[in-house]
User: What shape does this take?
Amino acid sequence: MTTLYDTIQQLRAELASFHLTRRERAAIEAELAAAIARQAERDRAADEEAPA
Assistant: This one.
């Protein structure tokens, strides 16, 4: 099972490729931004649940 962290790392690695079209790069950037937003949301939820 691929975790959200793994997905983010994979997308970052794909962006490092020099063999992407503009369309492919834009799609990967959008997917990466969405994944980072989901991770941030999960982090905030975990922080709210943590005891003070």
The chain has a mean pLDDT of 93. The chain has two helices and no strands.
